[in-house]
Amino acid sequence: MSIKTYRESIIEAMILEMKRDEKVFVIGEDISGGRGCGDFEGEAAGGPMGLTQGLWDEFGAKRVIDTPISETAIMGAAAGAALSGLRPIAELMFSDFFGVCFDQIYNQAAKFRFMYGEQGATPLVIRTMIGAGIGCGPQHSQSPYSIFANIPGLKVVTPSNPYDAKGLLISAIRDNDPVMFCEHKSLLGMEGEVPDDSYEVPLGKGKIIKEGNDITIVAIGQMVGITQGCLTKLEEKGISAEIIDPRSLSPFDEDMVYDSVEKTGRLLVIDESNPVCSFGSWITSMVSDEVFSSLKAPTRVLTPPHCPVPAAPNLEAAYLPDMERIVEATDYLTNYS
Amino acid sequence: MQLSKDKLLDAYTRMKKIRVFEETMRDEFAKGTVPAFIHLYIGQEAIATGICVELNDTDTISSTHRGHGHCIAKKSNLEKMTMEIFCRADGLCEGKGGSMHIADLSVGMLGANAIVGANAPIAVGAALKQRVLGENLVSAAFIGDGASNQGAVFESMNLASVLKLPVLFVFENNGYGEFTGVDYHCGGGDIAGRAKGFGMPSYKVDGSDFFAVQEVAAEAAERARKGEGPSAIECVAKRWYGHFEGDPQHYRTKEELETIRRDFDPLKIFRKKVEEAGLVDSKDLNMIDEDLSSEVTAAVEKAKNSPLPNVEELTTNVYEKGSY
Q1: Is the pTM value of this prediction over 0.80?
Q2: A2-194 topology per CATH
Q3: Cβ separation of A37 and B121 shorter than 8 Å?
Q4: A207-334, what's its fold?
Q5: Residues 6+ apart with CB under 8 A from A305
Q6: What is the ipTM of this complex?
Q7: Tens-place pLDDT, residues B246-266
Q8: Hey, which CATH number is domain B5-305, 3.90.980.10, 3.20.10.10, 3.40.50.970, 3.40.50.300?
């Protein structure tokens, strides 16, 4: 066990799995520093965010494949490679770029198992960066995981800390279905205790971050940490909140949320996606369907407003759900009568 | 290079099987027995066959919405394939794919594709096995003239070229992208020339002539196996029928259809060549014709009499069993 960053945990997961299975390879833009096709002396850069640092040096250009800026070809090649028996990790540098290549993800990779009558598996991981918070503006800051979760055949995970990032990525690589691994860019430098050995965090299993009795707060990705930051304030107000990090959105640990809401009678979801058809609204819809009689208050979802992510720092700060809004919503729901 | 008699008979069998199968499907569709859209491959038999005779069982192809011919040329099981086109439970895809999404991974047929041009990147992915695992293989993508304008195809050619992958980009120029003529839709009009721009050897051949296709397919496949990278082959042929069955074809004349069926018949051209050169006895070919006719009829009858999928199967095969 040692202290590692979210970024280091992701790299370590890939290295361990590439050592374990020769079929695992990584493909994407600039992942070895943009020199994939030539000789080069020195250390590989490992992508603009350093998320593939050291892979090229360890495994070489055959398994750490730099590509042109060509997301459709990357995603399609990864889909085809998976269908042919390889286990690709394809990097979609920013999740916003799904707009140029989604056909290969949702019409191809996600459908192969069903459409071909289970003739083969599609063991594909798409690692992609989500989220607002560092001033990247409208086309590099979105969190489109609700759109991904809408697609039958795709699995979607949203690790909120270094331990889960490593364990979920190892599970995703070993999984036999396409997995969208949504890395939050604001969390890359986050530190935490992470075992050196290999371990799996199972897909579809949530985690109760803190137990409580008055309200269930489900927080996704970056929102987990922000919600945890509210705990002192909530305790001062005498509110005992139960915080759940679902970790996977698809499959989703519905039972953990139902059990919690049956205990607390209240549900608040903190979700960074756009509000219309957000994943949070799906959670509240399921809870209304399944445990309605336990509810003591309306369910509520906190998301950004229905607008693109702005570039200006003050606007971006106003865009994201923050501690003040979370405390206010919690206060409202626990005092509802 | 002179082809052996066995190889010639094999090629004729594949081409003729495509023809008989598609004519049967045309008639079945007209009768209303086929539950999905179909797109006939007649007129292009020499392309799929010319390419696939140069591929091994472990080589792969990715196909198009007009994919029946590719399945047959890659030696997919005819009965199971027919059942799939009729959306039956025992079809290749258990009835969930149908004609436009048919695949047979057991013979390296990685799927028809109803998204035009989307199969090209998938073929590039299959070719990555050469780079990652050092496997000896060739991966062919069949791409229509309409699909040749898609960004996915350009990206695929570039990536295959940059990574030197063993891909054959087989452009089937049948004159029409859906209803639209190639003379209208293809800027510059030179599909093979575009491929050259990506730095790969590129050929333009008569796609109605099996020998023209096979000869360059052999060269391109050999280069690919040696790790010398991708090639493009533009095969110019004719589409004898509409974009889909039921297409009234307002965009072309009856005279055009008569002319192409008279002058651009891949089977007639093949027969003439092998018989005139004395390579194969016409009796052997006639026997193949008879055998195929009964084989196809039997497959279609069996498919029509086999059950549709159980409704309980509606939500199976979405994820790996037990993982969701």
Answers
A1: yes
A2: Rossmann fold (3.40.50)
A3: no
A4: Rossmann fold (3.40.50)
A5: A275, A319
A6: 0.96
A7: 999 999 999 999 999 999 999
A8: 3.40.50.970
